[in-house]
């Protein structure tokens, strides 16, 4: 074990040469605009596997690092480019370890750029060069079809997700987010290898950094067919984490679990609906009940709030396309109905050289989800998504957001599109307000 720890410490504590730091800073300024956001997904560790080949792996700290840097057209902070607001915050606070390992697979180079671990999820940044934009990222075996090790020991009990974007030059920048369900060391080498097939492996240094504060909750709420036990709230640098257990009846083969689509909204004492990042867990049958343990992550908070309120709710799941609501921008406030869930109001549109910036507010039952439902359309019906998805909530507000659109029509033929949605079904009997100032 000592040799593993020494190897990790040696890699983590080294500083990259000045040439590399300058190169990173230079390329950060030239990182292309983003395209085609890739939503966060969680992969099962028992998913079907497709073998692929990795070859050469080279570290920033090796003698060949200068040649490696010159051969990679984009290198820098993938976390700042495509990471969620929590990862960006952790990166800004200096919790990131620069990597630089690269491998070749199916004619594409993958460069692992950085790692971040603050006690919640482990985040790994990467760039895939020269992807075919016509082929969805989900069709490539990386990053879903991998096995992980910690200091050489195989780990199968984890959840893994990711997000990323296709860049203007055909490269793909993404993040892998890993949540181990068992206890892990504070610093270690994270091994990545194919689940089946060819023999290859890369090892990336990971070190626990940053502060966190946790509060035990130990509150149980129950009805006839559902029990939720709230265990703990932890405020990490990169996220706000809720740990809880869910106990339900074991569904029969013919019956669907009525709580399969149970979601959670978290609202702080200022009325801000925190952006959800995702989560996961698992469980097993126990005495005719199904007991599952979960951890859900939401956007981080700079300070521990006076209180937060957790609101469980059920989403309306439908395969039908939602009704479209359309309105033309006439230079003044424009309010569009979103159906039962609420309204969206365009407050201002600022046109610059190649972009328009839209300031808007939402009113209703689920402010975060409502803020997503905004597109731009031209007079011919061509639609455009915003460059920043999810949109940014404006500082100092609870319900105002900013979206930036590029390659849009002129402001004279600008239409806004939103969609009607049903209101969520809140489970009031499971709502919990936690006071942190007691």
Description:
This protein has three domains: 2-207, no CATH class; 213-316 and 425-435, Immunoglobulin-like; 324-419, Elongation Factor Tu (Ef-tu), domain 3 (Beta Barrel). It is built from six helices and 28 strands. The chain has helices at 2-13, 18-29, 65-71, 78-82, 85-92, 367-372, and strands at residues 34-43, 96-105, 108-117, 122-128, 146-150, 153-155, 158-167, 172-180, 187-194, 202-207, 213-222, 226-235, 240-249, 262-268, 276-286, 289-298, 307-314, 324-328, 334-337, 342-351, 355-364, 375-377, 383-384, 392-393, 400-406, 415-419, 425-426, 432-435. The protein has a six-stranded antiparallel beta sheet. A five-stranded antiparallel beta sheet has the order 11-12-13-16-15, with no helix packed on it. A five-stranded antiparallel beta sheet has the order 19-20-21-25-24. Strand 15 (276-286) and strand 16 form a beta hairpin. The two termini are 43 Å apart. Mean pLDDT is 81; it is low at 1-75.
Q: What is shown here, in short?
A:
11% of the residues lie in helices and 45% in strands. It has 438 residues and is mainly beta. The chain folds into 3 domains: 2-207, no CATH class; 213-316 and 425-435, Sandwich (Immunoglobulin-like); 324-419, Elongation Factor Tu (Ef-tu), domain 3, CATH 2.40.30.
């Amino acid at each position: 074990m000592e040799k593993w720890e020494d190897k990790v410490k040696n890699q983590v504590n080294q500083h990259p040469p000045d040439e590399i730091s300058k190169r990173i800073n230079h390329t950060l300024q030239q990182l292309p605009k983003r395209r085609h956001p890739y939503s966060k997904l969680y992969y099962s560790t028992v998913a079907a596997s497709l073998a692929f080949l990795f070859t050469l792996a080279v570290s920033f700290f090796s003698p060949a690092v200068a040649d490696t840097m010159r051969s990679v057209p984009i290198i820098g902070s993938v976390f700042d480019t495509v990471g969620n607001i929590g990862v960006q915050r952790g990166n800004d606070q200096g919790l990131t370890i620069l990597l630089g390992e690269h491998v070749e697979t199916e004619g594409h180079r993958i460069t692992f750029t950085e790692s971040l671990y603050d006690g919640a999820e482990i985040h790994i940044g990467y760039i895939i060069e020269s992807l075919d934009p016509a082929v969805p990222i989900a069709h490539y075996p990386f990053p879903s079809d991998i096995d992980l090790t910690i200091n050489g020991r195989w780990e199968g009990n984890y959840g893994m997700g990711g997000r990323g974007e296709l860049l203007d030059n055909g490269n793909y920048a993404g993040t892998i987010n890993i949540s181990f369900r068992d206890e892990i060391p504070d610093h270690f080498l994270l091994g990545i290898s194919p689940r089946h097939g060819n023999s290859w492996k890369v090892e990336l240094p990971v070190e626990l950094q940053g502060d966190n504060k946790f509060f035990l909750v130990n509150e149980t709420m129950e009805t006839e067919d559902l029990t939720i036990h709230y265990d703990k709230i932890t405020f990490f640098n990169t996220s706000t984490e809720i740990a809880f257990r869910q106990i339900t009846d074991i569904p029969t083969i013919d019956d669907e679990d009525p709580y399969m689509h149970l979601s959670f909204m978290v609202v702080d004492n200022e009325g801000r609906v925190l952006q959800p990042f995702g989560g996961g867990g698992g469980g097993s049958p126990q005495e005719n009940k199904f007991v599952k343990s979960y951890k859900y992550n939401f956007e981080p908070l700079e300070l521990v709030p006076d209180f937060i309120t957790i609101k469980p709710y059920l989403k309306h799941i439908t395969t039908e396309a939602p009704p479209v609501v359309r309105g033309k921008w006439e230079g003044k406030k424009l309010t569009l109905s979103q159906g039962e869930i609420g309204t969206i109001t365009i407050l201002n549109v600022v046109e610059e050289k190649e972009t328009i910036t839209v300031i808007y507010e939402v009113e209703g039952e689920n402010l975060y989800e409502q803020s997503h439902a905004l597109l731009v359309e031209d007079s011919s019906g061509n639609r455009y998504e915003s460059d920043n998805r999810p949109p940014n909530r404006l500082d100092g507000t609870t319900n105002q957001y900013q979206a930036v659109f590029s390659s849009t029509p002129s402001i004279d033929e600008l239409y806004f599109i939103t969609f009607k949605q049903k209101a969520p079904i809140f489970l009031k009997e499971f709502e919990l307000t936690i006071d942190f100032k007691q």
